[in-house]
Structures are given as structure tokens and as C-alpha cells.
Design brief:
This protein has 5 helices and 5 strands, in the order αβαββαββαα. It is of the alpha+beta class. The protein has one domain: Hypothetical upf0131 protein ytfp (Roll), CATH 3.10.490. It has a 5-stranded antiparallel β-sheet with strand order 1-3-2-4-5. A hairpin with a 4-residue loop joins β4 and β5. The longest helix is centred in the N-terminal third of the chain and has 17 residues. It is globular.
Length: 172
């Protein structure tokens, strides 16, 4: 039986670690999933969590909820606008759990978007965009739902949190 020299064993470990890393994906959250607590409650494990920015989009609350008049977060293209959010690194099981929680593909579609990190680098991440037939104009978030977004603002600029906090809610 052959034994590996220390160097070969080290190379094998690097390959194995790289293979594990390939199963991790970047997810850009702009709604209630910005909250680390919400992600943990949903059983989504993540290895990193940080601020990221999506240029050319605007945050809206037009994804119809099961509660009449209530809207959940969605993004729409709008030149010159910016959506602040949380970039997570999740494993494949986390992705499956997110798909289930977000109602993919019926309620939300999963798309890839370029997000900008605080150091200026741009990386591709997946996010969810509401299906057109799941949206409606004139909706507002509930206070409870908005509080989930605010809970996730700990890694976002204070100005963005303050702007979100001023969002008019369904229940005052």
C-alpha cells in the first residue's frame, strides 16, 4: 500500500476544501431575509453576512401577501436607484430552504444580479424577484414585516435604515 507524503496530503486537503467551497452560493437579501434571526428561524445556514449594494433597482412593497392590502419586499429596475441589502454565503441546502420559503418559482423567481461590496468589488449573487402575477399596486408592509427588515439593517448604512423606518405601514 502506498502512503502519501505530507505535501500530497496537503494538496488533497486543498482540493477537498475547494470542492466544499464550490457548493456555497452568494445570496443577496433585501427584504425580511436581511435579518440573521429570520434566516436562522428558517433553517438557512450561512458562513458569512455583509453589506452589499444593488445598483439600478428600487425597493418596493408590491409583492402581494396573503393578508389583504399587505405587501412584501420586491425589487424593480429603476435607473439611478440603489437597493441596500445583505449578502450571505449559503450552502446548497440553504438555497433549497430559501426556494421553499420564498415560494420559488410560483411567487418569486430566482435571478442572478451584480452586487457591489463595500470595497468596490462587484460579485454575482442570486436574489428573488416577485413574479409579475404576484404583484399589485398600492400595497404596504405590515409593521411586523417591516420590523424584520429593520432587524437586518445592522450591517447597512444608518441612512438606509432611517429611510426604511419611515416607510408607511399598513397598520400605522
Amino acid at each position: 500500500m502506498k502512503t502519501m507524503a505530507g505535501g500530497a496530503r496537503g494538496a488533497f486537503k486543498r482540493v477537498a476544501l475547494n470542492a466544499l467551497r464550490l457548493r456555497m452560493v452568494l445570496y443577496f437579501a433585501y427584504g425580511s431575509n436581511m435579518s440573521a434571526r429570520r434566516m436562522q428561524e428558517r433553517g438557512v445556514r450561512f458562513s458569512s453576512r455583509r453589506h452589499a449594494t444593488l445598483d439600478g433597482f428600487k425597493l418596493v412593497f408590491n409583492k402581494a401577501s396573503s393578508n389583504p392590502g399587505e405587501g412584501h419586499a420586491n425589487i424593480v429596475r429603476e435607473e439611478g436607484s440603489v437597493v441596500e441589502g445583505v449578502l450571505y454565503e449559503v450552502d446548497e441546502e440553504g438555497l433549497r430552504r430559501l426556494d421553499e420559503c420564498e415560494g420559488y418559482p410560483r411567487h418569486y423567481d430566482r435571478v442572478v444580479v451584480p452586487v457591489r461590496l463595500d470595497d468596490g468589488r462587484v460579485v454575482e449573487a442570486f436574489t428573488y424577484v416577485a413574479q409579475p402575477d404576484a404583484t399589485k399596486d398600492g400595497l404596504r408592509p405590515s409593521r411586523r414585516y417591516l420590523s424584520l427588515l429593520l432587524d437586518g439593517c445592522d450591517v447597512l448604512p444608518r441612512s438606509y435604515r432611517e429611510r426604511l423606518a419611515r416607510t408607511e405601514t399598513l397598520d400605522g
